[in-house]
Amino acid sequence: MIPLQHFLFISAALFSLGLFAIITRKNAIQILMGIELMINASILNIVAFGKYDKIDNTGQVFGLFIIVLAAAAVAVALVIIMNLYKRVKTIDPNQTNLLKG
Amino acid sequence: MQNITQSTNDILNSIPQLKAESTIVIGFLLVIVVDLFLKKSEKLVFAIAILSLLISGTFLVLKMQNMGESQILFNAMFAISKAGNLFKLLVLLASILSLLFFSQDERLKNHPKGINDFYSIFLGGVLGMFLLISSANLLMVFLSIEMISLASYLMVNYNAYQNKQAEAGMKYVLFGAVASAIMLYGISLIYGFTGTINLYGNEMVNGLNQIGAAGTTLAIVLFMVGIGFKLSFVPFHFWTPDAYQEAPTSVTSFLTTAPKIAVFGFLFLILPTFQGLNNSVFNQLILMVAAASMILGNTIAIFQDNPKRMMAYSSIGHTGFILMLFLLPQMMILNALLFYLAIYLLMNVGTLMSFAHLENKFRATLISDYKGLGKFVQSISIALVILMVSLIGLPPTAGFIAKFLVFSSLINLASADIWIAVLLIIAAITTVISLFYYLKIPLYLFIKKSEIEFKEKPTSNFLIVLTGLIALAIIVFGLFPSLISF
After folding, report:
1. With an 8 Å Cβ cutoff, are A76 and B150 in contact?
2. Which residue ranges run through the membrane (chain A) (predicted)?
C-alpha cells in the first residue's frame, strides 16, 4: 500500500505548481488550468485522508462533490473569458488594464 | 455508527425544518419555468421572486418564535439556531431591497434576453447564503460559498458589453476561483488533521489542538483566504473596487451587503471553534486584517472620483471595522454585530440607490459630475447627506450608534491588551479620515457651482422614495436605537 506521505507530497507539489502557473501565466485559460491543478491537489488530499477516516467514505464523497463543483465553476469562468475575448480580443490579464487605482 | 433507519428518520424529520429554504427553491424553479413558457413575463417573474422571499421571511419569523436551543439536522450537515435565523432575516432584507433596486436598473433591463434569467441567478445566490449560515460541515461550507460565488460572478457579468465591464468580470472570476481553490486546500488539511468535517462539537477543536501550532496555523490561514475573498478584507481585496465599479449599480448594492452579512453570520456561528484553539492564530489574523483593512480602505477611498469605487473602498474599511468584533467571545458580540450589519446594509443600499438615480437622471457617473446638482434634486441630495453622515458615524444618525456599540464592547478588552488598544486607536483615526471622502459628495452637490447645463431625463421616482425611506429609518434608528432589539 502506498503510504499517506506520498500522496501528501504529490498534492503539495501539484498545489504549488498550480499557484506558480497562476502567478506566471499570461493567459486566462492557462490560469484556469492552474486553478484546476490546485483543486485536484485538494481532491487528492481529501481522498487520501478519507482512506484513514473512521467513518467510511467522507473523503470520497467530498471529492465527488468537488469534482462536479469545479466543472461548474470552470464553465462559468470560460463563458466570462469568452465574453471578454469577444470585446477586447485578448485574454491576457496583464493587457486588460483599464481599471486602476 | 448510525444504521440506515436512524439516518432515514433523521432526514425525514429534518425536512420540515427547512421551510424557508424550500420556499426559495420553489421560487427559483418557478422563475425558470415561467420565463421559459410565458412571453413578456417580467412583472410576473418579479412578483414570484419577491413573494418567495417574503414567504421565506415569514417562515423564518414563525420558526424563531418557538425555537429554543439550536438544532443539528441531516446527520450533522445543517444547523439552525436563533442567531442564524436573525442573520438570515438580515440577508433577506438586503435581498428584498436589492430586488426592488434590480427592477429599476436600466442596464439589467436592457439585456437582449430580459431580466428574468437574472432573477433566477439572484435567487440561487440567496439560497447559497441561507445554506452558508446554516452549514454545520466543511462540505456544506464549501458548496454554499461556491454557490454564492458562481451567482455573483454571473450577476457582475450580466450585460457586460463594454470592455471595462468584461475586464472587471474576468478579474473577479479568476480571483474568486483562486481563492476558493486555496480555501479548499485548507479544508482538506483541516479534514486530514482532525478526521472530521463537523464544525460544531469538540472533535474538530481537539483534533486541531493535537496537531501542533504550525499545522493549525497553515490550515486556518488557508481556510480564511476563502472567507477573506468573500468579505474582501485587505490582502484579498483586489477584486472589490473593479467589480463594484463596473457591475450594474444594483448588483453592487447587493454584493456589498447580502454575501457579507451571510459570511459574517457564518463566522459568528463557528467562532467558538476558532476561539477554542490553544493556538491564537485566529485572533492574530483578525487583528492584523482588521487594522490593514481599515487603514487601506479609508485612505485609498480619498483619491477616488468614481462614487461606486469609493463605496467599494469604504466597504473594505467597514469590513475591517466589523471584524474587530470577532476578537471577543461569541455571546458578547451578537447585538453589536447585528445592529452594525443592519445599519450598514441600509446605508449602503440607500447610497447606491441615490447614485443610481443621479446616473439615470443626469448621466452623472463621477463625483465631479455631481457639481451643483443639489438644487435640482433636493430630496435625494438631502437623503445622501444623511446617509453620508451616517456612514462616517456622526450623531444623530444610526451609524453613530453602530460604531458606538462596537467601541463600547471592545473597550474593556483594550485595557487588558495593548494591541487591541492600538487597533481601537486605528479605528478612531480612520473614522476621522473617512470624513474627507464621504463629505466630498455633499460638497460637490451643494457648494461647488457648475458651469454646464444639465440635461434631465425623465425617470421614475421609485428610487427617490426608497432612498428617502431609508434615510428616514437611519435617523429614526439613530434617535431611538432600542427600536432594533434582538
Report:
1. yes
2. 6-24, 31-49, 61-85
Give B80-135 pLDDT, tens digit per residue. 899 999 999 999 999 999 999 998 888 888 888 888 889 999 999 999 999 999 99
Angle, vertex CA B468, rays to CA B462 and CA B470, nearest 5: 105
Cα(B232)–Cα(B236) distance, integer angstroms: 6
Question: Which residues in chain A have their CB less than 8 angstroms from residue B150's CB?
Answer: 72-73, 76
Query: Cα–Cα distance between A59 and B402 in angstroms, integer?
Result: 43
On whether residue A71 sits in a domain, the answer given is yes
Q: Is the pTM of this model over 0.90?
A: yes
Task: Say if the Cβ atoms of B139 and A65 lie within 8 Å.
Answer: yes
H-helix segments, B439-461: 440-442
Report yes or no: B143 at the A interface, CB cutoff 8 Å.
Answer: yes
How many structural domains compose chain A? 1
Q: How far apart are CA B200 and CA B271, in angstroms?
A: 10
Do B430 and B318 meet the contact criterion of CB atoms below 8 Å apart?
A: no
Cis peptide before B396 (omega within 30 of 0): yes
Closest-CA distance, B39 to chain A, in angstroms, reads: 26
pLDDT tens digits along B203-226:
888 888 888 889 899 999 999 999
CATH code of the domain containing A47: 1.10.287.3510
DSSP string covering B63-132, please?
HHHT--S-EEETTTTEEE-HHHHHHHHHHHHHHHHHHHHHTT-HHHHTSTT-SHHHHHHHHHHHHHHHHH
User: Does residue A96 belong to any structural domain of this protein?
Assistant: no
Cα-based distances in Å from B289 to B121, B155, B281, B299:
31, 28, 12, 15
Q: Which residues 40-69 in chain A show a CB within 8 A of chain B?
A: 41-43, 45-46, 48-50, 52-55, 58-59, 61-62, 65-66, 69
Shortest CA distance from B151: residue in chain A = A76
The C-alpha cell at B467 is 432612498
**Does the residue A101 lie in any domain?**
no
